[in-house]
């Protein structure tokens, strides 16, 4: 039996502890049902929802920038099917400021979905999180709220794979039911990592061991083999982590995190504007 791990810690693969993410494509024309599904599961998996050409354009843009900073070489670009002529076309803006990345995350299907989901115009946080995960690396178990909880309580995350991300390539895993763990939400889930008054006991990650939170509070870890065009959406208090990237061909896991909320509600000041302050000293509270 395959043993899936996160931060080198094994998952319990018993059927009640580990399973497959549920697709919500059948609910796409019913916003009320989508909102109900999030209330039940804490997430939405939309298969093949995004324009694959837009996704690949964002991937190519980022890989060219990675080649420029020495993270990958021309052989890697060619292996990924990137036209090397793009090296002379891609601008020199930072990763998150690329035209193709912004076209994918700040327009098109993505914004149309959130307008429908919120039943009012949506706002995307200006900061775009580009995730480059090398072989052997993973993300520990956490709530997103602890990093971006100063604004709307309706804030949601879009996790967008820019390449096929199977379980062996570091797929994201969600702890189903964790958005209803009231004790965890009122303790760890209520901190602000940039506020020294609340973050003394907890850091950003709750744990690196997926069994720890599961043994304490329950739930089933769910994941899947993601493909280009898939989209995973979840709430700020949905516990998630990633599997270790064990790609057999030394493939980097390349994904985007972007956040959306009703435009009518206040936004976390750390992640908006032309030059977001992020987790800089300007964001600190004491």
Describe this structure in words.
The protein is an alpha+beta fold and 286 residues long. The protein has a domain at 12-51 and 130-272: q2cbj1_9rhob like domain (Jelly Rolls). It contains 8 helices and 12 strands. Strands 4, 5, 6, 7, 10 and 12 form a 6-stranded antiparallel beta sheet that branches. The chain has a 4-stranded mixed beta sheet with strand order 3-9-8-11, with no helix packed on it. A hairpin with a 2-residue loop joins strand 1 (5-6) and strand 2. The longest helix is centred in the first third of the chain and has 17 residues, at 52-68. The radius of gyration is 18 Å and the shape is globular. The relative contact order is 0.23. The mean pLDDT is 95.
How many strands, what sense, and barrel or not for the largest sheet? 6 strands, antiparallel
- The CATH class of the domain at 12-51 and 130-272 turns out to be Mainly Beta
The H-level CATH homologous superfamily of the domain at 12-51 and 130-272, spelled out, is q2cbj1_9rhob like domain
The share of residues in helices is 10-25%
Pattern of helices and strands: EEEHEHHHHEEHEEHHEEEE
CATH topology of the domain at 12-51 and 130-272: Jelly Rolls
CATH architecture group name of the domain at 12-51 and 130-272: Sandwich
Taking pLDDT < 50 over at least 5 consecutive residues as the criterion, the unreliable ranges are: none
Give Rg in angstroms. 18 Å
Class of secondary structure makeup: alpha+beta
What's the average pLDDT? 95
Q: Overall 3D geometry?
A: globular
The number of helical elements comes to 8
Q: Which percent band covers the strand fraction?
A: 15-25%
Number of DSSP E strands: 12
- Straight-line N-to-C gap: 49 Å
């Amino acid at each position: 039996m395959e043993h899936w791990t996160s931060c080198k810690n094994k998952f319990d693969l018993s059927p009640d502890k580990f399973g497959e993410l549920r697709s919500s494509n059948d609910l796409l024309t019913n916003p009320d049902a989508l909102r109900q599904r999030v209330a039940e599961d804490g997430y939405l998996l939309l298969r093949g929802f995004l324009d694959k050409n837009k996704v690949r354009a964002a991937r190519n843009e980022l890989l060219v920038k990675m080649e420029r900073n020495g993270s990958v070489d021309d052989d890697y670009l060619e292996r990924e099917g990137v036209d090397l002529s793009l090296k002379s076309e891609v601008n020199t803006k930072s990763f998150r400021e690329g035209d193709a990345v912004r076209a994918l995350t700040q327009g098109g299907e993505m914004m149309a979905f959130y307008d429908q989901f919120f039943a009012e115009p949506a706002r995307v946080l200006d900061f775009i999180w580009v995730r480059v995960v090398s072989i052997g690396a993973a993300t520990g178990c956490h709530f997103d709220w602890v990093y971006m909880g100063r604004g709307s309580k309706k804030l949601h995350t879009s996790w967008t794979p820019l390449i096929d991300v199977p379980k062996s390539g570091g797929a994201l895993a969600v702890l189903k039911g964790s958005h209803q763990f009231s004790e965890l939400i009122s303790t760890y889930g209520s901190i602000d990592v940039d506020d020294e008054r609340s973050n003394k006991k907890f850091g950003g990650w709750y744990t690196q061991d997926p069994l720890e939170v599961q043994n304490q509070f329950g739930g089933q870890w769910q994941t899947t083999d993601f493909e280009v065009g898939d989209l995973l959406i979840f709430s700020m208090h949905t516990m998630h982590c990633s599997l270790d990237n064990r790609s057999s061909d030394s493939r980097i896991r390349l994904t985007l995190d972007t956040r959306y909320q009703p435009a009518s509600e206040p936004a976390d000041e750390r992640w908006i504007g032309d030059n977001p302050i992020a987790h800089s000293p300007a964001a600190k509270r004491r």
